[in-house]
Design goal:
Helices cover 30% and strands 22% of the residues. It starts with 6 loop residues before the first helix and ends with a helix. The strands form six sheets. Strands 1, 4, 5, 6, 7, 8, 9, 10 and 11 form a nine-stranded mixed β-sheet that branches. Strands 12, 13, 14, 15, 16, 17, 25, 26 and 29 form a nine-stranded mixed β-sheet that branches. Helix 2 runs antiparallel to helix 5, helix 13 packs antiparallel against helix 14 and helix 13 crosses helix 18. It is an alpha+beta fold and 589 residues long. The radius of gyration is 23 Å and the shape is globular. It has three domains: 174 residues, 3-Layer(aba) Sandwich (Phosphoenolpyruvate Carboxykinase, domain 1); 266 residues, Phosphoenolpyruvate Carboxykinase, domain 3, CATH 3.90.228; 77 residues, Phosphoenolpyruvate Carboxykinase, domain 2 (Beta Complex). The protein binds oxalic acid (OXD) and manganese (II) ion. The site of manganese (II) ion has 3 residues, from loops.
Length: 589
Amino acid sequence: MTEVKNQIVLDWVKEMAELTKPDEVVWIDGSKEQLEAIKNVSLATGEMIELNQEKLPGCLYYRTNPKDVARDEKRTVICTRRKEDAGPTNNWVDPKEMYEKMGKLFDGAMKGRTMYAIPFSMGVPGTEFAKLGIELTDSIYVVLSMAIMTRVGAEVIERLNAGEDFTRCLHSKATINEQEKYIAHFPEDNTIWSINSAYGGNVLLGKKCLALRIGSYLGKQEGWMAEHMLILKIENKEGEAKYVCGAFPSACGKTNLAMLTPPDYFKEKGYKISTVGDDISWLRIGEDGRLYAVNPENGFFGVAPGTNEKSNPNALRTTHKGTIFTNVARNLDDNTVWWEKLDKNPPENGEDWLGRPWNGKTSEEKGAHPNSRFTAPAENCPTIADEFFTGEGVPISAIIFGGRRAKSEPLVYQAKSWDHGVFIGSAMASETTAAANGQVGVVRHDPMAMLPFCGYNMAEYFQHWIDMGKKMTNPPQIFHVNWFRTDENDEFMWPGFGDNLRVILWMLNRCEGSVGAVETPLGYEPKAEDLDVHGLDISPETLEKLLRVDAEAWKSEINGIQEFYDKFEWLPKEITDCFERLKKEINEI
Ligand code: OXD
Ligand code: MN
């Protein structure tokens, strides 16, 4: 293996090993042989279970502690020297106090265990977008998952040896004591410490912790953006490619949208969809004044329940090899996996996510945890775009904000300007899901889908969006969508999934200026005839309802936005101006 020679790296690893006191330190080189050997250790200890290698080659099964099944936002903290730099939406602790508190918990936490040192890159190493990290961990699950989700290996070590900076990531599962669980970020030190969890979102430190929380902080300093966004490529029959980014809160369908299958009618018209990313985008302004995006990850950490042949056949194919399944149900007859809504054939001789005997045909209880996951290599995805591999960045035509809203939000509208789009993003709300601990289904404000992921004061973050807009000569158009609006009988009015392409094509027409629109207080709405619903069983009345701005619902929506904004000591004037205008115009309806 390429030897680590950078003294700063070696000193830091030594210091962390002196603190956590593992039996040995093993550097991960990302080679197949080494990962195979480490996997075999986890099979021997029972930490991981090997699945049917004929049906699911290279796939593993993993179960977390039943109390450790989702991101823990209450125990996620931002440790900046000044409290106001973390802002009113983050948990804040003074860095000195947090290092001291966690230092005691890390002291000896790896005794009797191996410390694995994982050098990784978010983004393709050597590209303008890439950032390096090293995660020190005592969990083989983390090693094997990081090898899927990030780029690990010799090239990263060479770059470290050449003196490139890196994020210092320390993780120990310790005793999985939920009272002493912390996921702490020290943006001013480019450092992340996580202890007492083994759930992906809390421990795969390249993902939410580095690529979003530390990433958003670095982006603010360095003039780029780290966002909770998928990236989708749309090609027409002439082969012209357009790219859009979409920010939706956790478990609101980003992976499904990123891998969507066009309805037959659009396939016949020659449209092709490819996937650049499903969860995180890093965005930079190009020399041509446009915004360019990469997906810094190397795999997908997707929600399993609800993934099926109809909702997302591409995700299913993606998980058929080299994948780690976490907290799903197991079919003991053929040693495969199952989750709710996978198919109509649950195992009769199964085991639920807690490892209890489970008969899917007769049991009232769910087999898989609602936040059970697959961790799958992006290269497995049948729709993965070539641009994913170059990591050079694709020009973004449109940014889509969205959430789960049963009532107030129309199917789609377009912002009137970049600043208005920033206002729309700052005011967005969504019903909570099982991706984080806490109550599911309550509406909460989640600006740009970044509420749990912004590593600094969100007022500053909004200002950064406004400033980025000023630097672009050709910024993306901004849209808001809601695939989840329901009727009087609580039935979804819009079919969603592949049919969402119809809405995206309207957006692209708007970007080109080839269709008109109706101006409303929220933004520009499609004229019903401009939304291509060919082959869709939807009545003109339903379409009209989907597009309607419900003034009454918006009056209470405005109160909700005001309540959320009241948390902040200040907000950019561009945002408050848009809010004032919305209030006035809604009252005039
Ligand atoms: C995720 C999340 O896992 O947002 O992507 O929780
Ligand atoms: Mn996410």
